[in-house]
Design a protein that fits this description.
Largest interface: A-B, 65 and 65 residues
Structural class of chain A: alpha/beta
Shape of chain B: elongated
Order of helices and strands of chain A: HEHEHEHEHHEHEHEHEH
Shape of chain A: globular
Number of strands of chain B: 16
Order of helices and strands of chain B: HHHHHEHEEEEHEEEEEEEEEEE
Distance between the termini of chain A: 80 Å
Strand order of the largest sheet of chain A: 2-1-3-4
Helix content of chain B: 10-25%
Radius of gyration of chain A: 23 Å
Radius of gyration of chain B: 35 Å
Distance between the termini of chain B: 98 Å
Strand order of the largest sheet of chain B: 1-2-3-4-5-6-7-8-9-10-11-12-13-14-15-16
Largest sheet of chain A: 4 strands, parallel
Strand content of chain A: 5-15%
Number of strands of chain A: 8
Largest sheet of chain B: 16 strands, antiparallel, barrel
Oligomer: heterodimer
């Protein structure tokens, strides 16, 4: 009887521990040196390249998840609770992290704290709205377009912001972080040259985006954005706008409609069909497609998909 | 000297020639006229000079004032301010806006202007409802929106101000106005304004504690913390209305602390102490007999299989008749979203409440008044399918006993939702209710709702 009773007791404790989520056995060796949380998958992949084996980098959103209309999940609060450093976009694309941080009981990651790194610092930002800014423009980003990581040319500045922020909190890791950064930048630069060569034949090609996600990418490769299907972010396009866009595409010979994989394809497909252009669906964030969790692999995937679509007659 | 003489030479000659060329009496009149004109011109010049000097003085004062404001607006060196990356991001170009600039009516609900940033967020939401039902329900005033049957009415128009107070705290103030059903006459209807929330959240307390104090919606159950315009259906579930009244547990004054436990799975504990101002369950309204509310919430992240939230709550306080009321709640919510676009999105959620109340029944000549114990329960369950970002439909079922009377009711409510954008939503809902005992009736109601959000709005929560 006694062994059975003991077994029951152990089973009960195990069940309760499982329900409450008992912490793993603590040990200094298992504790990573840096515990970093990135708000978005692109920042996660870049930060991971810098941190390397110096710590653990987690991400608050799932790859392939639209960060524009994210709802807060309690599991994100837990991620914030565990982190000691937060890497955020800085241009309101991830403003949803603020209420998460405020609910987490981790004041180190509150906005304005030294433990918060804003990756957009020092960048030459595009599409900063001028004049009156209100919701008639849709869910617009008042500080500028936040999709800057799609231009590999921004990587020296972005990685400098992140590496400086990490080194500020852990000066002992600064040399290693800088070495990782240089190694990452060298790889990016080498591939960027190849990507530019690959897209060089299409410089000046006119393309249309579904969402206004690609201005930095177009700038990097000399593509011309003829228009945006979703002309007001977050608001489905009107038939009048689509008609006007199709007319311009026909007049100016736009060849491609680029659709981010998390948006509904109907209106983008209709525009492409009516204008005689091609629709290409591209995941905007690393990790949305297997094997693209790394920043370079993701950009390779994007450039390849676009080059292939532009090459087809 | 010679040069000077040579320089003035032509002047006397010119004057002489002018003098000899003018006729006598007419000349005198013209001189007078010219003199008068010269005087008038001089006056005008003096006036213009005065105006310019006045404007120059005003501009100088303004410049000095702006420089002084910029000096005072420069933040004291704090740890955050010494950090170049984050400090640079939070400091608006050109210095902080003055109070006068912030209050200028030029662009009241704009998000921002280049180079200018409000120091807090402003959001306005409007929630308008129509309740179509039978004449019987209207006469008896026992519809879901009692006293507002067969009316289009503003249920809640809310002004929300929220933001960070300083590095250690944030605050929110929400003022709302809505039509209240007062008396039987149409003229009795009034638009009541009240403070829904006005609370301070302390963010940097030890042991991972976060505390709120002020006027708030306490953390009880699943839907109590949800604002009217954010409810999953147009009306609140019957069990919540029966156990807490139409106003729910909102506007409670007190302090609440909560912790996210440092465990691998999300577990949150909260406890609050309040005056107890609820109109139905806890109306004592004094900290000598406080309303105490506690909640445990857990969340299981199932990744591609969705997420499941479970909460357990308890609220205990003293009612207006000096008897203790205790209400227990169990809630669960499951959501699954398709990978990628997040649509279709499927939600199923429900909540069950168990109330223990003691009520003093009035006696008469034959029977003395006595205390009677009521142990009652009720629940709701709904399922919703968001087909796309715009379209969703769902159905809710209600079953509840009355909190302190004999009787029970059930209801079923299918509904349809259309969201042209994130900031605008329309809903239509049909509700069939059948009650027995004190709520003996069959009611058929049709609701329409329009909701808008202006300016800043909080992020949606699971």
């Amino acid at each position: 009887m006694r062994p059975r009773r003991t077994l029951r007791l152990v089973s009960l404790i195990a069940v309760l521990a499982g329900l409450l989520g008992a912490p793993p056995a603590p040990g200094p060796a298992a504790e990573p040196a840096l515990r970093v949380l990135a708000t978005l998958p692109d920042l996660w992949s870049i930060t991971r390249a810098l941190v390397g084996d110096l710590g653990r980098v987690e991400v608050a959103t799932r790859p392939g998840q639209n960060p524009h209309d994210l709802e807060i999940r309690p599991s994100q609060i837990l991620l914030v609770k565990r982190a000691e450093i937060l890497v955020r976009n800085g241009l309101e694309e991830d403003a949803w992290i603020d209420p998460i941080v405020e609910s987490s009981g981790n004041p180190r990651l509150l906005r304005g704290s030294a433990s918060v790194i804003e990756a957009s610092q020092g960048l030459d930002l595009l599409k900063i709205p001028s004049g009156r800014v209100d919701r008639s423009l849709g869910d617009v980003h008042p500080s500028g377009n936040p999709h800057f990581t799609l231009d590999p040319g921004t990587m020296p500045t972005v990685t400098a912001s992140i590496a400086d922020g990490l080194a500020r909190l852990r000066p002992d890791l600064a040399p290693k972080l800088e070495a990782n950064r240089r190694e990452f930048l060298a790889r990016v630069e080498s591939r960027f040259q190849r990507w530019r060569e690959r897209l060089a034949p299409y410089r000046g090609a006119r393309v249309v985006s579904y969402h206004d996600s690609w201005p930095y990418f177009y700038r990097a490769y000399g593509l011309i954005e003829l228009g945006v299907v979703e002309d007001r972010p977050g608001v489905p396009p009107t038939p009048q706008h689509l008609t006007s866009l199709v007319r311009r595409m026909k007049e100016q010979g736009a060849r491609l409609v680029v659709l981010e994989s998390w948006y509904p394809p109907e209106s983008a497909a209709a525009v492409a069909r009516l204008a005689g252009a091609k629709l290409v669906v591209i995941p905007q964030s690393p990790g949305a497609v297997p094997g693209t969790a790394d920043y370079i692999a993701h950009m390779e995937h994007v450039v390849t998909a676009l080059a292939k679509a532009l090459a087809d007659p | 000297m010679r040069m000077h003489t040579a320089g003035f030479w032509p002047l006397p000659l010119l004057l002489l020639s002018l003098g000899t060329s003018l006729p006598g009496p007419a000349h005198a009149q013209d001189v007078d006229a010219v003199r008068q004109e010269l005087t008038a011109v001089r006056r005008q010049l003096d006036s213009i000079r005065e105006q310019y000097e006045t404007r120059l003085r005003e501009l100088t004062d303004r410049l000095e004032q702006l420089e002084a404001q910029r000096r005072t607006a420069t933040p004291a060196p704090t740890p955050a301010a010494t950090v170049p990356v984050t400090a640079a991001s939070s400091a608006p170009a050109g210095g902080e806006p003055s109070l006068r600039e912030m209050l200028a009516p030029r662009q009241p609900f704009a998000l921002a202007q280049p180079g200018r940033t409000l120091l807090f967020d402003i959001g306005v939401s409007g929630d308008f409802v129509t309740d179509f039902t039978s004449r019987n329900r209207e006469r008896r005033r026992d519809g879901t929106f009692a006293g507002r049957e067969n009316r289009f009415f503003p249920r809640e128009v809310e002004l929300g101000l929220f933001g960070r107070v300083d590095p250690y705290a944030s605050a929110v103030v929400r003022l709302s106005a809505g039509e209240e059903a007062a008396g039987l006459e149409p003229s009795d209807r009034s638009l009541g304004v009240e403070v829904d929330e006005a609370n301070l959240t302390l963010l940097s307390l030890p042991l991972g504690t976060t505390a709120r104090l002020g006027v708030m919606r306490p953390r009880f159950g699943t839907l109590n913390i949800v604002h009217q315009d954010d409810l999953p259906q147009i009306d609140r579930p019957n069990v919540l209305s029966r156990f807490f009244g139409e106003e729910q547990l909102e506007g409670e004054k007190g302090i609440e602390a909560f912790w996210v436990l440092p465990l691998p799975v999300y577990n949150e504990l909260s406890i609050g102490v309040f005056d107890g101002d609820n109109e139905v369950a806890f109306g004592r309204g004094t900290l000598r007999d406080p309303l105490v509310i506690g909640r445990w919430r857990t969340f299981l992240e199932l990744e591609e299989h969705g997420g499941l939230q479970i909460d357990l709550s308890a609220a205990s306080g003293i009612a207006t008749d000096a008897h203790r009321t205790t209400i227990l709640g169990l809630g669960a919510k499951y959501k699954w979203a398709a990978p990628g676009s997040g649509f279709p999105l499927f939600t199923i959620a429900g909540e069950a409440l168990y109330a223990m109340r003691t009520v003093t029944t009035e006696g008469d000549d034959t029977t003395p008044s006595r205390d009677r114990r009521f142990d009652r329960w009720g629940a709701y369950l709904y399922g919703q399918l968001d087909l796309t970002r715009r379209w969703a439909f769902g159905v809710r079922g209600d079953w509840t006993e009355l909190a302190a009377e004999r009787g029970r009711e059930w209801a079923v409510s299918p509904y349809l939702q259309f969201k042209p954008s994130e900031f605008l939503r329309f809903r239509a809902q049909y509700k069939h209710t059948e009650g027995t005992g004190a709520v003996e009736r069959v009611a058929n109601e049709f609701f329409l709702q329009g909701t808008f959000i202006l300016g800043a709005h909080p992020t949606e929560r699971f």
